[in-house]
Amino acid sequence: MNTIEAAKIQRAAVLGAGTMGHGIAHVLATSGITTKLYDLMPGAVERGLASVRANLDKGVQKGKVTQADRDAAVARLSGTIQLDEAIEGVDLVIEAVPEKLELKQQIFSNIGEKLGSHVLLATNTSSLPIARIASVTPHAERVVGMHFFNPVHIMKLIEVVTTDRSSASAVRTAVELGVRLGKDPIVVKDAPGFASSRLGILLGLEAIRMLESGIASAQDIDKAMTLGYGHPMGPLQLTDLVGLDVRLSIAQYLEKEFGSRFAPPALLIEKVARGELGKKSGKGFYEWKE
Questions:
Q1: Are the CB atoms for 137 and 108 separated by under 8 Å?
Q2: Residues pairing with 192 in the sheet
Q3: CB of 132 within 8 A of CB of 141?
Q4: Predicted confidence (pLDDT) at residue 212 exceeds the cutoff of 90
Q5: Does CATH number 3.40.50.300 belong to domain 6-189?
Q6: Annotated catalytic residue, options 5, 99, 159, 270
Q7: Contact in structure between 45 and 17 (CB atoms under 8 Å)
Q8: Is 159 a catalytic residue?
Q9: pTM of the full predicted structure?
Q10: Domain residue ranges of the chain, discontinuous segments joined by +
């Protein structure tokens, strides 16, 4: 059976209410899709929903979102701590839980047994192998990667990652869904780090090594890339935004796959150990204050 067409998707579940999860729920709801935001923790669900409302309110204040569109998006969005309730009657599931393969496999095994073969199953992983996530679920042909970028409601790129078993209809639906969400999709094969993480991590790790060696300040390293190469954000500021713990996890995984060029610098390991995780903790390579 073919995966549902993107234009016909009416109901979706987003599994994981963290930074990426609530951002994905935001763009689904604003694109006319009734969306359930799921997390095991009630507090996480409420924080995620509150963040979506706050971002929509900022959009209204800046004149980028109408009050009517804001209210309609909020009406389409709800939360739950019950997985079965989240996935009931959906056409689309996007998983956005922490970057742990076993956790993602557990979720996909569970939902794969309960959902029809027409439902598109997507994982927002930034580096883990899609094929291994898909291997535990029936109808692996309807599983793809849909790698969004933070902040989801602003960043235009979406990376659609295909496995050898991903059907043409699933890939087409994911690409067309990306366009429906206002994104600009790229399609890449399932390989460690895909395209974006593999390239971005190398730049970020080298910037950290330069800082560690005293080559320049964080601000000047970042300015070299924003002013010299036209990057919208420097690699150290971006690492703070993504999360130092997230980048450390990706680097450790890619080091196992590709060797020492992805080895995380001592400074990154030390900062994560101290709880300096970037914007979400208030401190990373920069100080962050609300």
A1: yes
A2: none
A3: no
A4: yes
A5: no
A6: 159
A7: yes
A8: yes
A9: 0.87
A10: 6-189, 196-278
* Residue (of 163, 189, 44, 29) closest to 94 by Cα position: 29
H or E element at residue 180: helix 168-180
Q: Based on DSSP, count helices (H) and strands (E) in the chain, helices before strands.
A: 12, 8
With 0-12 / 13-18 / 19 or more C-beta atoms within 10 angstroms meaning exposed / middle / buried, residue 110 is middle
- For residue 239, how many other CB atoms are within 10 A of its CB? 31
Architecture in CATH of 196-278: Orthogonal Bundle (1.10)
Handedness of CA 4, 9, 11, 16 (dihedral sign): positive
Q: Which two tokens stand for residue 79?
A: 């939360």
Assess whether pLDDT exceeds 90 at residue 179. yes
**CA nearest 104: which of 254, 242, 249?**
249
Q: Where are the beta strands (DSSP E) in the chain?
A: 11-15, 34-38, 77-80, 92-95, 120-123, 143-147, 157-162, 184-189
Q: At 247, give phi and psi (nearest 5°).
A: -65, -35
